[in-house]
Amino acid sequence: MQSNITVYTTNSCPYCVMLKNFLNEQGLPFKEVNVQQDQEAAQRLIETTGQMGVPQTEVNGQWVIGFDPNTIMSLLKK
């Protein structure tokens, strides 16, 4: 099953590191977008989700706010 996972992060976010480590441990490939370094991506993220915090993860078009591995895994099973 092909999954499309994008993780939005910043340089100083410990939960972002935890989330990336979790995805790596599960063997799940993901794209990382650092919104601290990419202001346009940060603005798009706020416009899309209404949230400024990170991590935010897009899983096959569905949004997961924060470090929530259980929700990410349940979205991957759909």
Automatic annotation (TrEMBL):
Transmembrane segments: none annotated. Residues 5-64 form the Glutaredoxin domain. GO terms for molecular function: electron transfer activity. It holds the Pfam family Glutaredoxin. It comes from the Bacteria. InterPro entries: GlrX_YruB, Glutaredoxin, Grx-like_ET, Thioredoxin-like_sf. One of its GO terms (biological process) is cell redox homeostasis. PANTHER family: GLUTAREDOXIN, GLUTAREDOXIN-LIKE PROTEIN NRDH. This is Glutaredoxin-like YruB-family protein. It comes from Oikeobacillus pervagus. The lineage of its organism: Bacteria, Bacillati, Bacillota, Bacilli, Bacillales.
